[in-house]
């Protein structure tokens, strides 16, 4: 576990360095929102710049590790057992519209398993961290999933497909099945933070389809280390491969999964 802890320190450092630039750029977005040019190109540059900073920091500390990031080509490291999985700006659309709900997500994979994860929300200054066997934490406070047992009291989160995504019909069916049974569903636009909020007990459960590995790798470990249950939407265990996830506290996981299926 000591190895994971050392890596977690490197990951936290990388997230905090990248956050400085993203916070500064987010401050500029408000000015750009009313400009003729708009903000799309500016935000894509902020995204790419943040990934470059994270990559340089992580690869300087661990040059043998592989790399999988949203904004750059994957790298096969000289150590094939270990890989960084990074989303430098999860919640880009929120960032683009000046909404203060987005995060940096960094995970470390060892032999195909996520063993350390960081999700950092720079605007709210919340640093979520987890290491395999070491629990999940936010700003030094231990996290536990909620213990609500009745779906009627539970608050859930999801992502609603947009653009050319093909799963809008499935998500609509999910909502029709779930909404009458629960206290509400939120769609905040950051999978990494949705999973972190399940780990923190703020949401009782979360589900989404068509996700990439970097959207959820760190968040999955947060939920697991906070005592939550996870599967893909078909009930399988290879969530990163399937691109779909169900996460919830143990008391409602089965009922929640059945409602969605």
Describe the structure.
It is globular, with a radius of gyration of 18 Å. The protein has helices spanning 2-32, 40-61, 92-96, 168-178, 191-199, 213-225, 239-242, 253-260; strands at residues 66-69, 82-90, 103-110, 113-121, 126-131, 135-138, 141-142, 155-158, 184-186, 205-208, 229-231, 245-248. A seven-stranded mixed β-sheet has the order 1-2-3-4-5-6-7, with helices on both faces. By secondary structure, it is α+β, with helices and mostly antiparallel strands. A hairpin with a 4-residue loop joins strand 4 and strand 5 (126-131). It has two domains: 2-142, Fructose-1,6-Bisphosphatase, Chain A, domain 1; 151-260, D-Maltodextrin-Binding Protein, domain 2, CATH 3.40.190. Helices cover 39% and strands 23% of the residues.
Question: Can you tag this structure with a few keywords?
Answer:
single chain, 261 residues, alpha+beta, Fructose-1,6-Bisphosphatase, Chain A, domain 1, D-Maltodextrin-Binding Protein, domain 2, 2 domains, seven-stranded mixed β-sheet
From the alpha carbons, calculate the radius of gyration and give it in angstroms: 18 Å
The CATH architecture assignment of the largest domain turns out to be 2-Layer Sandwich
Largest sheet: 7 strands, mixed
Sequence of secondary-structure elements: HHEEHEEEEEEHEHEHEHEH
- Biggest sheet, strands in spatial order? 1-2-3-4-5-6-7
**What would CATH call the class of the largest domain?**
Alpha Beta
**Overall geometry:** globular
Oligomer: single chain
The structural class is alpha+beta
> Looking at CATH, which topology of the largest domain would you report?
Fructose-1,6-Bisphosphatase, Chain A, domain 1
How many separate domains? 2
State the low-pLDDT regions, or none: none
Distance between the termini: 37 Å
Number of helices: 8
The CATH superfamily title of the largest domain: Fructose-1,6-Bisphosphatase, subunit A, domain 1
In total, the number of strands is 12
The average pLDDT score comes to 92
β-sheet strand percentage: 15-25%
